[in-house]
Amino acid sequence: AAYCGYVLVIMSLYWITECLPIAVTSLLPVLLFPIFNILSSNATSQIYFQDIQMLFFGGLVLAIGIEKTGLHERVALKIIMFFGSDPKWLLLGVMTVTGFLSLWISNTASSSMMLPIVVALVKQLAKYNPAFSNKKTIPSVSYNKVNDASNLDTNTGFKVEHVTYNDDEGTFHEETSEEHIANEELQTPAGKKLMKGFCLGIAYSASVGGSGSLVGTTPNLLLKGFFDTNYPDGGLNFLTYLLFSLPAAAMVVLASWIVLAVIWLPKSELMFFKKKPKTAAGDQLKKMIKNRYDQLGPISFDQISVGILFVLCVLLWLTREPIVDGWHRFFGYDKYVSDTTPAILIVILSFVWPKNNIFQGHKYEHLLKWSDMINFPWDVILLGGGSLAIAKGFQESGLSTWIGDILKDVMPEQKGLALLIILLFCGFGTEFTSNTSMASIFIPIANSLASSIGIIPHYFLMPMTVCVSFAFLFPVATPPNAIVFGSGYIKIKDMIISGISLKIIGIAVLMMAANVWLYPIFPNATIATNTNVTESFKQVTFASNL
């Protein structure tokens, strides 16, 4: 137990300080566990590519296909067109789109894609809306997609602002051009505040949206991997996670919209249900959005193909173990089929499916090529493996029992108060390190506490996993914050002003979720344990109990 504790401390320090690359730190259990006789080299190595890692692999490949074809931008512009030109409703539309995209692709990709679109929208608002403009003509706003200068539309006047950071929800390092004078291009205080509100809306909805589905961000999959190893009959799958986390994420995004609108929009724009007359600003904005959408051209065959594969994958995830008997029953129940099965099916189809319609005489070309995987985030796979290895070492060494006994003496006996302390600690701790690191460290610790108190593991682990994605206060907390901060339109104090209230709201929502709708989703769950529970843990499925 002492040796395992030593490995945990070393890895935690390395993850937080990033004195080694996060992926390299994640390999330490392969070296140290056999040396300290915690786990054999063979047993440790097998952890790094378990079922949950394959699920993560499949989700990332699907996201690569969506980004390669540009389907996500088409969907984003279409939804924004639906919300109209009123600033408050447009802000809600932007946040809805960003949050939805982050359910399926990385929050880094969704926020970096949405930022240049939003900058152009706000430029039009500030230019034509009398609430944000003056008589002076406003120059072009400038920004570029992070890490993808090749996609820069030179006709928009966007200017490159370089931001580099760890791609897996980690720390970033900013390089700000001295010539970047973004805020000077917005001539009025109201226009500058409008830009701040929209930029923060992108960052917050991207982070919160990623917490809403099992494949949205790395901590969610780490939780699934922990349950697969320690509570294989614990009832946690794509659907049950969605049922718990999506309502909470939607409530926090809605609260974020209200907070940002109140703080950053003029009072004249806060008449939420009063219909405003048509204005020149609204017409110009609608025209600009439509022109941007029309520039994409008609929807292409590869976009349709990726859309079909995406919908098929989500349907297979949702119907594997739904309210009635799912399709997995035809293949030996959960003994043989998991959420990984449809994910890998879609991966294989993506490399087989034609990019163009071969029935119209086009040459056969793969929808996805292996060369598209050149920038695949393999470090995320290693990070997940390292986190799961630490959790397994906790169990095998007896460290989990020891920590659980200590926490039982320190933490309050009331489970609600204990959960509040966990959420406060993880919620504010994730502001200073990556959410993946926080989840990796505290999932086994929270499980030990649940065991010592004598409650189901879901009560602590699920709200805590969602909470580590609620990073609202600092740029270093998560890539979406880093991306919008690097644009030059917001300052750290702007994040703190908006983020502190959202942090409190997010924790309150998760407290409600844990006490209101968690138990109906997992009605037969038994208490947490620090030992191998494969034999003793009672089979729980949301479907069968409804």
TrEMBL record:
Main localization category: membrane
InterPro entries for this protein: SLC13A/DASS (IPR001898)
Domain of life of the native organism: Eukaryota
Localization, UniProt: Membrane
Sample GO molecular function, one term: citrate transmembrane transporter activity
GO cellular component: plasma membrane
Keywords, alphabetical: Membrane, Transmembrane, Transmembrane helix
Membrane topology type: Multi-pass membrane protein
PANTHER family associated with the record: SOLUTE CARRIER FAMILY 13 MEMBER (PTHR10283), SOLUTE CARRIER FAMILY 13 MEMBER 2 (PTHR10283:SF82)
Family designation: Belongs to the SLC13A/DASS transporter (TC 2.A.47) family. NADC subfamily.
Protein name in UniProt: Solute carrier family 13 member 2
Lineage, broadest ranks: Eukaryota, Metazoa, Spiralia, Gnathifera, Rotifera
